[in-house]
Each structure stands twice: as structure tokens, then as C-alpha cells.
Amino acid sequence: MGASLDREVKRILKEAGCSFFRHGNGSHEIWQNPCGNRFTVSYDIRNLRTVNSILKEAGIEVSAREALAKKDSKKRPLVCHCANGSSSALLQASL
């Protein structure tokens, strides 16, 4: 198995304006996006499929590979989209 990706995922979520809400059951945390929608994040994320699922639940429209890439020369804004279609947070993040 690969290395745990949870720290990187949490960094991406924070850069997109999401925040920790509370501890969940077992090995999960409940997070909240700027629109108020809540979603779960595991303590031990090991594959890109899970990362994609978390980003989708958070309303962040970027692939896991793109979000986890560490390219200092390229900047792409991370946007959280609400269920009603509006964009609530637009932040510059170095990916």
C-alpha cells in the first residue's frame, strides 16, 4: 500500500475554504465546506479514488492527481461549488 494522503487532502480542503467541524465515528472526521455542506474525511486515506470522492463531496472540481501535484510554477484557483450552483470560495492555491 502507498503512503497516507490524509495530510495533503486536509491541506487542499483548507485552501479551498473548508473547515474541520467535529470528530466522527471511528476513524473519520466531519468537515464543512463554505456553503455549510458537511462531508466525512478518513484519518487514513491511501488511494486516489478516495481523494476524488472527498473532493467531490466537498464541491471542489479538481482531480486528485491535479490537486496532489506539487508544481510551484503553476497556480490554479480552487473553487467550492454549492449545491445551488453558486461558487462560494475562490482561493489561489499552489498546486
What do these coordinates show?
By secondary structure, the protein is α+β, with helices and mostly antiparallel strands. It has one domain (about 5-95). The protein contains three helices and five strands; from the N terminus they run αβββααββ. It has helices spanning about 5-15, 50-60, 65-70, and strands spanning about 20-25, 30, 40, 75-80, 85-95. It has a three-stranded antiparallel sheet with strand order 1-2-3. Strands 4-5 form a two-stranded antiparallel ribbon. The longest helix is centred in the middle third of the chain and has 11 residues, at about 50-60.
Defining traits:
three-stranded antiparallel sheet; two-stranded antiparallel ribbon; 95 residues; alpha+beta; 3 helices
Concise account of the structure shown:
With 95 residues, the chain is α+β, with helices and mostly antiparallel strands. It has 3 helices and 5 strands; from the N terminus they run αβββααββ.
Share of helix, binned: 25-40%
Side by side, the strands of the main sheet go: 1-2-3
SS field, number of helical segments: 3
Reported for the largest beta sheet, the result is: 3 strands, antiparallel
- According to DSSP, the number of beta strands is 5
The unreliable regions are 88-95
Number of structural domains? 1
| Helix-and-strand structural type | alpha+beta
SSE arrangement, N to C: HEEEHHEE
Percentage beta strand = 25-35%
N-to-C span:
24 Å
Apparent shape: globular
Mean pLDDT: 79
Task: Using the CA coordinates, give the radius of gyration.
Answer: 13 Å
